[in-house]
Amino acid sequence: MAVGPVAVANIGANAPKNKFAGIIMTSFAAFGGILYGYDTGTISGIIAMNDWLCTFGDVAGDSCTITSSTKSLVVSILSAGTFFGALASAPVGDYLGRKWGLIFSCLIFSVGVAMQTAATALPLFVVGRVFAGLGVGLISTLVPMYQSECSPKWIRGAVVAAYQWAITIGLLLASVVNNATQNRPDHSSYRIPIGIQFIWAAVLSVGMLFLPESPRWLVKRGRDADAAHALSRLTGLSETDPELEVELNDVRANLEAEKALGESSYLDCFRSGHNQIRFRTLTGIFIQAWQQLTGINFIFYYGTTFFQNSGIKNSFLISVATNIVNVFMTLPGMWGIERFGRRRLLLVGAVGMCICEYLVAIIGVTISIDNKSGQQALIALVCIYIAFFASTWGPIAYVVTGEIFPLNVRAKAMSMSVASNWLWNFGIGYATPYMVDSGPGNADLQSKVFFVWGSTCFCCIIFAFFCVPETKGLSLEQIDILYQNTTPIQSVAYRRRLLVENVHASDPESFKVGERGNHEHVEHDQASVSEKV
């Protein structure tokens, strides 16, 4: 079977006449981001609601309050659950599959929501937050994994970025619902925002019933016929179509090459070698860590309280405004990720956030809370900072972790990467009240905390430059070839060569690396490729 350059360029999920089938299906999985965003977003407003404070906090005269330790526990315990949920996503995703793993995650999440809704004492509320966190942790890994393995390579970045967009929509919905129920005089003020989460879980789990399983997971399980059927649904091609068979052969060839190295384990994710597995794993772990260290969740976890303490009136509405910025600025990021690439946007975003956060810190320590113009500047800079995050580091961190790992360790490496995100999320969520609040045992940094976030964003610039390669437009199998033969700094030029020559996994020897790291092209033997296919 001859395979010419045109056929290779348009294999499987990239065939133009069928290009929307896989996009629509895999984009629906992004709905899992609604659960993630809404659940993390509700707590910012809930802990400021009077009825919740009186139910779970301490009554002091006509007001109710909670201590910094209780606030830290309630906010950060979700991230503790998500950390273990993310780690559990590897065995769940490998054993149940990506599709049924997501449905199982929704069940766990719903148990946690039920506990929080029914709670009238803090222990049950906290346990409910843990169970909800387990579900969110599973979802936060399985959704980008499913999308990366099922979406067409030419728009994979935008599809996975839709997951982050769904997260921002969830955050916005949470702030709108919180704003609508905050003044209710009874338990419904916080139970309505929490109970609405049953709807999001039901939509995702029912919708996933109608989606195909990941073809790559099915190939890994030896279910080739099911894999062909799933890929046929995603591409609209016949199961016997030669183009579809070429893509499946690429997946098989890549998996066989990886199996030849032995059965994968968590330890294998940190082994050095030609495939750069250790470097890839560390890149995934640290890009998720740096995403949290940009300080974005300080705004979404404690934004309402922070704006109140800064003297800004109607802080709930300001929180809604920042969430609107977060939602709509993710859209240009989804477009730009396939227009400008991952690496460039990460660098631009880190620079922009660094500047904004330093300015917020400087303004915050030099103006009084009665300075109206200063407060407006503070809000504007926070919104610009959120815009930079939403269009760059927000979606791209998940895109990168969803596509840089080889199939045999993808579930394990992704689970550790996303667990890193939640571990830092937990640490930041727990430590922030002590960093920001006043009183004994607290640092009372207030807006000075943005000096910390600005410094971490400077570190993000360095990390993106030295550790993140450009993978725009490459198949998951081509990304393996890129890692084997170049460095992140040189990846832009090497990626262009891969695209021009249409190298795919069944013929990785088409490129060799010279002694000085220069790439020497070896003429592609189409007859050899045809024989292998």
Give a verbal description of the structure.
Helix 5 packs parallel to helix 7, helix 5 (68-95) packs antiparallel against helix 20 (410-436) and helix 6 packs antiparallel against helix 10. The chain is mainly alpha-helical. The protein is globular and about 75 Å long. The chain is built from 24 helices and four strands. The strands form two sheets. It has a two-stranded antiparallel ribbon. A two-stranded antiparallel sheet has the order 3-4. Strand 1 and strand 2 (63-65) form a beta hairpin.
User: Can you tell me the CATH architecture?
Assistant: Up-down Bundle
Report the span from N to C terminus.
Answer: 7 Å
Number of domains: 1
Instruction: Report the average pLDDT across residues.
Output: 82
Helix/strand structural class: mainly alpha
**Could you list the spans in which at least 5 consecutive residues all have pLDDT below 50?**
1-17, 505-533
Element pattern in H and E? HHHHEEHHHHHHHHHHHHHHHHHHHEEH
Radius of gyration: 24 Å
Strand coverage percent: under 5%
Largest sheet, in brief, is:
2 strands, antiparallel
Query: Which CATH class applies here?
Result: Mainly Alpha
Global shape: globular
Order of strands side by side in the largest beta sheet? 1-2
SS element count, helices: 24
CATH superfamily: MFS general substrate transporter like domains
Provide a short characterization of the protein structure.
Helices cover 72% and strands 2% of the residues.
List the keywords.
533 residues; Growth Hormone, Chain: A; 4 strands; disordered N terminus; disordered C terminus
